[in-house]
Every structure is written in structure tokens, then in C-alpha cells.
Fold:
Amino acid sequence: MASTKEIKNRIKSVGDTQKITNAMYLIASTKMRKARQDAENTRPYFDLLRREIHRMFASDEDISSRYLDSAVDEEVAGGRSAILVIMGDKGLAGAYNQNVIKETDALIKRSDEYRLYVVGDYGWRYFRTNGYNVSEDFEHSMNKPSLGMARDITREILVGFDGGEFDRLYVCYTEYTGGMSAGITMHDRLIPFDKDDFLPEGDETAEYASGVFEYEPDMRTVLEKAMQSYLMGYIYSALVNSYSSEQNARMMAMDAANDNASELLDKLTLEYNHLRQNAITQEITEVSSGARSLRRKKKKSVGEM
Amino acid sequence: MDKYRLQIMAADHMVFDGDAKSLSVYTTEGSIGVLAHHANLIMAIVPGELIFEPADGEGKQSVIVSDGLLKVENGEAIVLVDTAEAPEDIDEARARRAEEDARESLKRANNNREMALASAELSRAMSRIKGSKKKHKLQ
Structure:
């Protein structure tokens, strides 16, 4: 059985750990709220952008672009894929990172060739050490998602796509579902876009004042610019969703850790009190039995005299 | 001068929403001005300075914008840009560093991919520097 001193040390160290997990819980919740607010601010812009893109489709049915292909059949595997994998910088977030890795593996199996663009230090280390085909000069940590970061990512990936290095771009991320849920790990195809991707939410039969527009320099250039911006918006929202899910997963992991620590502390305190009580009882027994034997000795010696 | 409704929207904030007298912005075809009753059009905006004059008579305002879209429909104009910064918000020293970095990586670029990245970076840095210089002259 452990000594009281050992248990006391244990109680102290569990208490310290609990302080840390509690702080991490609070930090995660603040970070998440902030990121969600930032993302909310960009909503009107991307909604409007999507509307304009959809309008261009409406005014010209036959428009074509290298970013656009409504005929890609997702059921047919194959092709050269690039996968943008969005993960966290650190662990301690339950199964969050593992779920993304699993989803990525499934996606890789369906492609003939693949290349990974990994966001987040944890993922970067994992995929590199396990011999995946990772784009080496693509390094972004998941510190805090920002528009600037989304812009850099979009630009770097588009250079690869425009250079003909791959035919499809997927993003593998975790959709934030709110509450005490870890979010849903999922993948989406980004490029080529499907025309239906741009249907305005809510009103699918959006009617446009069918004014005639003059496009400068031409519709395709304008459309491609708009789609690049839209891609950036999509990537940004995937980043924010993943980030929120990660913080949420960490909050839940830390909450569970807090509970475990409290339970452990209760048990240890009980054990400590038991031991202490035992020690006291034993001491009293020793003292009283010592006193008794002394008394007996005394009596004996008196009788002998 | 007649006025028209103008909305300038950056990805993360609204720059201007109200009546304006004029707007001038750089597009792929060069600089373009928009006054009231302009014909319907959609154009691609390139990084540079955007100048507009609100109808409330407070004088012309300038913002440095990046890539985006200009739409005029039924006399109303909408500008959608990825970023928009007021010239006084641009840290000139930082913009200069970005320019130097971009020039450096342009020199070292050993394939098309790096070249394209660096030149995009450079054009953005140069338009920001230009914008912030102009502000200093005005003061």
C-alpha cells in the first residue's frame, strides 16, 4: 500500500493537471467563438458572389471554363486528384485528427494518382513520416484561420491546377455541427465546379432581371476570376469549420479530462483519509499497548520486592 | 451631378453602401469610370486604387483593392473585391518588405508555378505601396 506521502503527491499532481485541462477548455471555447464571428462577417460577400456566378450561368447556358465541369461522375473512381487536408496543429482533441486521416485514406484509394496539400502541423508530420505523397513546399499551420491564409492556399493550389498537375481538387475537412458534437468529417470536390454548386440557397428558382450585360474583357475571364474568389471563400469556410470543430473536440476532451480528474481526486482523497485514520489508530494501539506492558512490568517488579 | 446607388464590399467587411456620384477602378481593360445611368456591365477588377465620391459631398475617397468584380445593373453598381484597405491602414514598410520578398522569389523561381505565385504577390505589393505613397503626398 502506498504511503500517505505518496498519495499526497499524487493528489497534488492530479490537481495541477486539472488546472491545465480547465484552462485549455476555456481557451478552446474563446478561440472558437472568435473564429465563428469572423466567418459570419464574410457571409454576405460570398452569398452575393455566388449569386453573380449563378447569374452568368443563367445568361449563357453553354459557357465553359476549365474550372467548370458538370459531367464529372463521382461514382467513377480514378483520375489525378489533389487533396487539401485540413487538420489541427496539436493532438489532445479526441479523435478529431484520426477521423480526418481515415477520410483522406478513403479518398486516396479512389484515385489513380494523388497529391496532398496538408494544413496543420500535426497532419503534416503524420503524412510525411508515413510516406504519403505530400506537396513539400506547401506549409500552413492551423494557428488561426484568416482570409489571407485562405488566399495564399487558394493561389498555391490554383497554380498547380492551372499548370495541369491534377484534374480534380478535393477538400477533406470537418464540418462544425455545434453543441457537444465532434463535427462531421467529410470531403467535397472543389474543382471542377458543378453548375449546381452555385444555386442560391433557399430560392432555387432565382429569377434575374434579364438585362443584357456587357462583359469586359469577356464572360469567361470574369467568370474565372469570380470562381477563384469563390474557391477562396469555400476554402476559408472549410478552414473555419475545421478550426471550430477542432476547438470543440478539444473542449470535449478537456471536459472529460476534468471529470476524470475530479473522480480521481475524490478516490485519492478517500484513500488518503483511510490511510491517515489507520495510521492514527495504529499509533494509539501502539501507545496504549506499550503503556499496558510497562504497567504490567511495574506490577511484577513491585510483587517481587 | 446625378447620383446612383453604390455598394463596395470586401470579403470581410462592407466598405461603402450608399449613394455616390462617381467611381473609378482598374480593370483588365484599364481604368474605368462609372457615373449615374451607366450601361449594364460586368467586369473583372485588378489590384489597384479604387476612387469613389459619395453623394453627401464629403469629397473623394480612396481604397486599395485586390482582385474582384464590378457589376452595374439598372443604374446600381456593386463592387466585390477580396480585400480593400484604406491607404492610411497600409503599413508602407511592411508592403515594401513584401515587395522585396516577391522580387527575390521571382528571381529564384525555377518553374512556372513559382513564377506565377511570385508575380501575383508582386503586383499586390506594388499596388499597396502606390496607394500608401499617394496618401503621403496629400498630407
